[in-house]
Amino acid sequence: MFRHRPLHSLSTCIRKDILSEQGSQLRPFSHSTGAMKSHDWNYQDELFQFTRGRFLYNERKQFLQREVRFDMNKLAQIAVELLGAQRCEQIQKFPDGLFNKAYLFTMDDGQEIVGKVPNPNAGIAHYTTASEVATLDFVRNTLNIPAPRVLGWSSHSANNPVGVEYILMEKVAGVPLEPFWRVLKPVKKLEVFMKIFEYQKRLSGVVFPRIGSLYYASDLSTFDQAPPLVVKVNGEPLELSNFSIGPTVGQGWFSDGRETLGFQEGPWADVLEYRRAIASRELHCIRELHARKPMQMICGPKLYQPTSARKVKALELFQAWLPKLIPASQPELLEAYLWHNDLHAENILVNPEKPTEIMGIIDWQSTEIAPLFELRTAPSFLGYEGPAIDDKLEAPVLDKESVNSAEENARVIKQHNDSAIMTAWLRLLKKKDPKQYQAYRFQQTMPGTILHISQNIFEMGEAHLLSFLLQQQKQAGSGAPQLSISTEQARVIEEDAQLADKSFDLMSQIRDQMGDAWPDKGLVDHQQYQQAKEDLSLAKEDIATLLDLSNQEKMELERYWPFDQ
């Protein structure tokens, strides 16, 4: 228990993705389409509800945002007709996504097809599904990236018999890379990432003229007036007459209530226009919505305490600095690319008999066309969580001299191997696709960091944004925008940043101590729910003890605590 392990001495432990363990488990519902009403798929509540785990914050609301009701029998019948089968014998639900549900339909003749529907929290009606279908088509048929083949779809729930937007697609052979990646030898990991790099290089070879998301031209209301979409493929123009760029479907525009405010989601002609729109979005949210308590930090007495006024101040100062922060001297970083920005090991499907063979890349929902300097050119499947790797890209040295236990030895070896893999990836980028490497490097700079954290100030980050802007002004000299900040205000800004560091560090210690039971994105496995609640409750008591809080301050900590009691 936490009370027996003081927070100031908590050790870092290697975390596993507790939810990915369920990735290969399908929940079967084996009733045929001709079954009696008591066997009607529409009466199987678990098909429509979120059943993957439990939420540790605002659980009822989280479940409602991920429950979607529709006519499953009609969707099964459409699947039957697409495959030319007689009937559907079984429907199995894949583990719930946070923004969608997916099902495996098995026919009487053994054929299989995957069905996917968006959750209510997925984004704008019509656009989210329409963009995903067009994106799958483009990356599969234009770029030869192994994305699923779409067999049937509808982005207008009011105009189809199912009553929901849906996509029916081929079942991609293969299983998630995640469990294999943990145990693959470094040389085999290199084989995998060479193939992933090739796919990313195909994406980075296509420059789009605007920022937004990809659609079929016929799915946008303005397609009659829009000129043909012309992209540059490795520097040469290519007309994509069937496609067009429309509003973004990126989750940053729809999470935590943002979707209720009716923003203009693009497309945008240039980076400055686009980033001003993001800053305006965050300001509007701060003034109109109530932000949820951030789970990445602990706020309260003797820690950082966010205020709307501080958030507004941070964004107003950021807007003054914005033109100077954009990397105008590196025009290749301003160009727009379509990108899979969530390339974790669950979205890479491999041959289970030969896990270095990639069978498919899945989950292209919410894909954006965005400036290169924003994109994740070092994908998350690499699993690197260590310190920044400098531009020398020297091979890491394994230091086991201070190792005192088998557990610590395993940790040191893993950190070394992870660092070696990340270094090899960066060397590959630098040699084979320098612009991807420069995008990664820019993200490590102060301007890159400021641009990154400014996108989510409605939720958190204003203390560091103000501090970084202050540092940027000191370094830039007289030619830079001058922030209207007094000496006293500057002192308070630095104090706030230090308190925010403390708030992040405390939550990080709790996360490391809980290990697999940590509620990533607020979610835990069913079996871990009670234990996670108990651990978090004890952690809260430990924090109160560590900070020596009075009874009144303990009540204040309760008010800021982000998890359900």
TrEMBL record:
The keyword Iron does not apply. It comes from the Eukaryota. Pfam families: APH. GO terms for molecular function: transferase activity. Residues 312-372 form the Aminoglycoside phosphotransferase domain. One of its GO terms (cellular component) is mitochondrion. The keyword Transferase applies. Keywords: Transferase. This is Phosphotransferase family protein. It comes from Microthyrium microscopicum.
